Amino acid sequence: MDAGNQSVVSEFLLLGLCQSWTMQVFLLPMFFILYLIIVLGNIAIIILIITDPHLHSPMYFLLANLSFVDMWLCSVTTPKMITDFVRENKTISFGGCMCQILFVHFFGGGEMVLLVVMAYDRYVAICKPLHYSTIMNLQKCTGLVVTSWTIGFVHAVSQMVVIVGLPFCGPREIDSFFCDIPLVIKLACIDSYNLGILMNADSGVPAMTCFILLLISYTYILLTVRRSSKAGTSRALSTCTAHITVVLLFFGPCIFIYVWPLSITWVDKFLAVFYSVITPLLNPTIYTLRNKEIKNAIKRYRSYYIHPKGNI
Fold first, then answer.
1. Do residues 277 and 34 lie in contact, with contact meaning Cβ atoms separated by under 8 Å?
2. How many angstroms separate the most distant Cα atoms in the chain?
3. What is the pLDDT of residue 233?
């Protein structure tokens, strides 16, 4: 079919998380509060890292970038989901749908690589501490962050090149709260089985590759920590536990959605909420509550900017 026929469908209908009006009214304030916490919490972390000289290190430079990515990853889908809770007609334009796909995979792919970079940073800090300042300098960190953004962009564009060229002329209902590739491909006016497998592989292979690299990094770290002193072990384990928690909760749903052969609608919706809303919430929660240096930076910020007279 001619690619021009895709204009037959100018918008898609999102069925949302649930059909119950009562449940949607209940979910509206909950997700609105969660979204505010995610945005304000991640902005607070970025500002804290930029303004506090004690946090001007590779680890916190990478954490600030992770907070930035998380904030935007959540913002691609959550505001639309929140507004749809109070709308009877939950439509999204064809262009809006394509933008959601582009940016979800752009920020999602970038975050996967960034988590690998953060694991590499911890590996160098714990396994090669004497060479840390040489290996993880500002130039190297900036290059690694740019690489993560580049890989995320290339991954997203590779998905978009295929999706935009598909003919859409029939059903337009998407049983989710945002446009996701497996669901959109099913609406194309072609036999989409093989294409669906190819597109899932395009997402699943990078996810599995990053996940395996993370497992290797943290295995080396844990083996090294096991041979370290008790004081060093406690601090390293605290930092790594936070990182591993974020990794498992981010990669778990992604791998299940794009690699697992079975598709169960309510499970996919739950997992999509998990990696697009819950995981971005973990940064301001886990990294703040479990990180001693972040907590000390918050105390210094309060002392100097909120209660300056207490220092006199």
1. yes
2. 75
3. 59
| Dist CA 65 CA 63 (whole Å) | 5
Burial of 258 (0-12, 13-18, 19+ CB in 10 A): buried
Residue 241's contacts (CB-CB under 8 Å, 6 or more residues apart) are 290
Q: Classify strands 11-14 and 91-93 as parallel, antiparallel or unpaired.
A: antiparallel
Q: Shortest CA distance to 250 belongs to which of 116, 87, 64, 85?
A: 116
* Number of residues that this document lists for the chain: 312
**Secondary structure element (H or E) that encloses residue 11, with its range:** strand 11-14
Alpha-helical regions (H) of the chain: 21-51, 58-84, 94-127, 132-135, 138-164, 181-185, 193-226, 230-259, 265-273, 279-282, 288-289, 292-301
Strand partners, 14: 174
Rounded (10°) angle between helices 265-273 and 230-259: 140
Q: How far apart are CA 99 and CA 105, in angstroms?
A: 10
Cα 103 from Cα 110, distance rounded (Å) = 10
Q: Is-contact 291 242, C-beta < 8 A?
A: yes
pTM for the model stands at 0.86
Q: What is the pLDDT of residue 4?
A: 44
Closest alpha carbon to 196 in 104, 252, 255, 261: 261
Average pLDDT over residues 29-37: 93
Residue 12: left if φ>0, alpha if ψ -120 to 50, beta else—which one?
beta
Q: Please check whether residue 14 is in contact with residue 92, taking contact to mean a CB–CB distance below 8 angstroms.
A: yes
pLDDT digit string, tens, across residues 221-241: 888 877 766 555 566 666 677
Both structure tokens of 57: 């290190």
